[in-house]
Design brief:
It contains 5 helices and no strands. By secondary structure, it is an all-alpha fold. It has a single domain, classed as RNA polymerase sigma factor, region 2, helix turn helix motif (Rna Polymerase Sigma Factor, Chain: A).
Length: 106
Amino acid sequence: MATAIVDRYWLGETSAVATFLQEGPKEFDGRFSRCFGLMHFIACRILGSSEGAEEAIENCRAKASRNPPNFEREGAFRSWLVRVLIDEALAVLRKNRAANLNAEES
């Protein structure tokens, strides 16, 4: 099943930064939308819940749209976006664990 998701959302860009700079935020939104299913799958696997996944995806979108040129030109847009998502999902996981520890102490 995971292979089908990866195949379905494959973008294959080789110069996503150059394309973003030429086409602007509207193209970024389209590419982000095409990656949503894959990102949701990955975030759910890391966080174990759909609610946490939505938070991680929102954080990823905000961070990625602020700094789109901050990845290698030869890198694929999808790979870069998934890396940002993984970082954001791990941040949400750390935040949730800290909140659980504080709740247990109280």
